[in-house]
Amino acid sequence: MKVEQLFTGCLAEMAYYIHSNGEAAIIDPLRETEPYIEMAKADGAKIKYVFLTHFHADFVSGQVDLAKKTGATIVFGPNANPQYDIHQGKDGEIFKIGDLTLQLLHTPGHTMESSSYLLIDEKGNKPYVFTGDCLFIGDVGRPDLAVKSDLTQADLAGHLFDSLRNKIMTLPDDIIVYPNHGAGSACGKNMSSETFDTLGNQKKTNYALRADMTKEEFITEVTTGLKPPPQYFGNNVRMNKGVNTSIDDVIHQGTVPIDADTFKEMSEQKDILVIDTRAKDVYAEEGTVPGAWFIGIDGGFAPWVGALVKDINQKIIFIAEEGREHEVVVRFSRVGYDNTLGYLRGGIHSWKAAGHKVDTIGSISAAQFANKLKEGVIENPLDVRKESEYLSEHVIGVNNFPLDFIHSNFAEIDSNKEYYLHCASGYRSLIAASIFQANGVKKVTDVRGGFKDIKDTGVELTAYVCPTTLL
Predict the structure, then answer these.
(1) Residue limits of CATH 3.40.250.10 in the chain
(2) Are 10 and 303 a contacting pair, CB within 8 Å?
(3) Is 354 helix (H, G, I), strand (E, B) or coil?
(4) What are the helix (H) ranges across 215-341?
(5) Which of 44, 133, 357, 423 is 20 to 30 A removed from 387 (C-alpha atoms)?
(6) Strands 128-132, 176-179: parallel, antiparallel or unpaired by DSSP?
């Protein structure tokens, strides 16, 4: 028996590969198919099933392409009605994979088709349960992503309470919980950085599994403090219910090299967006194509593309480090941005060699920022971290301008003023600065090292204090 967790850090997503006696199954695959096919090939196994725990909102899953290439059967739980052939499983139904059995447990709440899969070995032991977005480590799935006119988030939270109590918490305490997401995903509120745990330990530490919690308390707890989901979530659900352009065609189209002159002509077209995916230090030092956005491939690339690029069909050309062009296109496609048209051949060096102008973002160190702030010469310092990060601790005199909502709040920005931006470590602030500049703000400066380095300067900080309740 082989059970392997496949963690993708950019999406904080876990897919699973299961193999037994020449047969294999994949749970919640990413868009790209080759890694799974190669794993099965190495084991001399045939992929028999592709199991989905639900219609994912934060990434486009690869079940249709994978089934076409391998002949595998796609399995969803009850209430799933996609536009392609599936086996719609029933609660309690079993599926054989070599000497192993997977039992479908219908666990609605995050979504109504949401299902978990219980693994039973040849001896009848139950070592693992794959919980999808029903149960995370330290948290549970948010109940507001599948709201319909006749179904409120409180209704979904109620279903989730029942699923946890009646299907998951009745399993053995020593069973390993394997969820679909970890810390950093927007599918929950407060997930742990751990990617698995025993159910018994989760009963002790996960607020949502507290033994004496009432249904009403649970509903209040899981629905309080929910922020609007990223704008691309709805598009990804729609794509996961439908048949999309094959991943091979997306990669073929997106990995076309474009010479500097042609790239310049394309970059000046209003319907084409340029994204610079290089390392942040390289981007800052060498400059970029005028109007380009920076979203570095080595940070939270795919989620930030999804959060910031409003049109899922946006035409995109990009700048990449040599040898990473294929990777960039794959990572665009993971969140449904399939309309990549190619990359700058030879990178920014070929652009400069052709005599074209570059844009650069001004930057200063955390120490310089702290000194300027103390001297009162910075009028518009902005902290682009999430509101929750800002409220936990921030620099006195610095306003919050979350990157997540930069487009909806941009009317507050005066293009004639000068802005100093920082985030936690310098990745998000550079994204924000590039968008400021692309939208006509000529004086924008990035604070290198972000809040992490700013704290070390001894600058005065303030933290949010919860109001005291008088008894």
Answers:
(1) 245-353, 362-462
(2) yes
(3) coil
(4) 215-223, 233-241, 247-254, 260-267, 280-286, 301-308, 325-333
(5) 133
(6) parallel
What does the DSSP 8-state code read for residue 467?
P
For residues 335 and 173, give the distance between their C-alpha atoms in angstroms, rounded to a whole number.
35
Distances (CA, A) of 255 to 225, 291, 315, 328: 41, 21, 13, 9
DSSP 66: H
pLDDT in tens, 173-231: 999 999 999 887 878 777 888 999 999 999 999 999 999 999 999 999 999 988 888 89
Task: Please provide the size of the chain in residues.
Answer: 471
CA 375 to chain centre: 40
User: In which residue are the tokens 């486009």 written?
Assistant: 60
Q: What is the pLDDT of residues 252-311, one digit of tens each?
A: 999 999 999 999 999 999 999 999 999 999 999 999 999 999 999 999 999 999 999 999
Instruction: List the structure tokens of 403.
Output: 């990157």
| Side-chain-facing half-sphere of 301: CA atoms under 13 Å | 23
Q: What is the pTM of this model?
A: 0.93
Alpha helices (H) in 318-386, listed in sequence order: 325-333, 347-353, 366-375
Which of the listed CATH numbers 3.40.250.10, 3.30.2290.10, 3.30.559.10, 3.30.1340.30 matches domain 245-353? 3.40.250.10
Tell me the residue type at 74. I
What is the Cα–Cα distance from 345 to 342, expressed in whole angstroms? 9
CATH code for residues 362-462: 3.40.250.10
Could you report the per-residue pLDDT of 143-177, keeping only the tens digit for each? Answer: 998 877 788 999 999 999 999 999 999 999 999 99
Q: Domain 2-234 is of which CATH architecture? A: 4-Layer Sandwich (3.60)
Percent of the chain with pLDDT over 90: 91
Question: What six digits make up the tokens of 371?
Answer: 């000194």
Return d(Cα 210, Cα 156) in angstroms, integer.
19
SS3 410: helix
**What six digits make up the tokens of 99?**
């000497």
**Other C-beta atoms within 10 Å of 261: how many?**
13
From the list 38, 43, 82, the residue with the least C-alpha distance to 63 is 82
Q: How far apart are CA 424 and CA 384, in angstroms?
A: 9
SS3 label, residue 397: coil
Portions of the chain given CATH number 3.60.15.10: 2-234
